[in-house]
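Q: I have 146 residues here and want to know how they pack in 3D. Can you give me a structure?
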Amino acid sequence: MLAAHKAHIQKSPISFNGHLTGLPMGQHLHRVLGDEYFALGLTSITGHTADMRRDENTCFGFTIDNTPLEPPEPGSIEAAFGDAESGLNIADLRQARQGARGNAGLASGPDRIRIQGAYMHTPVIEAFDAILNSPTSTVADDLEFT
C-alpha cells in the first residue's frame, strides 16, 4: 500500500486548462504492474479541505489553509455521490469502465474530481479504480511541521 495525493496516484495524465502538466506516478505504476495496481481516490462533498498556498518564507514553501468546500460541480464525481445521497460510500469504477468499453452509447462518467479546493478535469473512470466518498471532510489543525 502506498498513500499519496490522488493527483499522484491516478492512472491518466494530468491536464489543467487543456494543457498536459504531468505524468503521474500512478500512470507509471499501472504501466509496470498492470491490474495489480489499484488506484483508490478519496473525496468529500461537504466540509473543509487543506488548500496549499505558496509561501517562500516557510520551510516547505507552502502553508495550509483550512478552506470550506464549495458545492460539487456538475459533472464531477462529487456531484454523482451527492445526487445518490449515499453518505459514506465507495464506487467501484472498474465495473463502469468495463461497461463503457462494451457500449459506445454509454456515458463516459464524471469528467472531473476535486483536488483540494479546485477541480481537475480527468476521465475519472479511467484515472481511478475506485473512489471512496466521505460525506464530510475536516482539516487537522493540531499538526506542527518543523
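Q: Anything worth noting?
A: The beta strands are 14-16, 19-22, 40-54, 62-68, 89-92, 112-115, 118-121, 130-137. The longest strand covers residues 40-54.
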